[in-house]
Amino acid sequence: xxxxxxxxxxxxxxxxxxxxxxxxxxxxxxxxxxxxxxxxxxxxxxxxxxxxxxxxxxxxxxxxxxxxxxxxxxxxxxxxxxxxxxxxxxxxxxxxxxxxxxxxxxxxxxxxxxxxxxxxxxxx
Length: 124
Description:
Number of strands: 11
Strand content: over 45%
Oligomer: single chain
Structural class: mainly beta
Shape: globular
Number of helices: 0
Mean pLDDT: 96
Low-confidence stretches: none
Largest sheet: 7 strands, mixed
């Protein structure tokens, strides 16, 4: 079992920055990949970014490439999503997720555990 708790969401103006955190507990954190997804009102959940167990590989959705950075600190059992140059269309509930036994970073159904989500609102 893996428990995931996101934090760091909030309200920010367009062009601003936020850093999301996701604290994990349960299984050995350094043994599995992590991802971030988001769901805007009235839309399906979509992939944002993912990072391999070691942090050596990262993968981003085209919509956030160059603006968002995913990272992890295995000593702190935490994955981060640094979001810069935020746009109103980035408004969504952001979820972190753990992918235990594979590396299909953008495939939602490959993830085994999910956090409860944190709201990010970007005003224009």
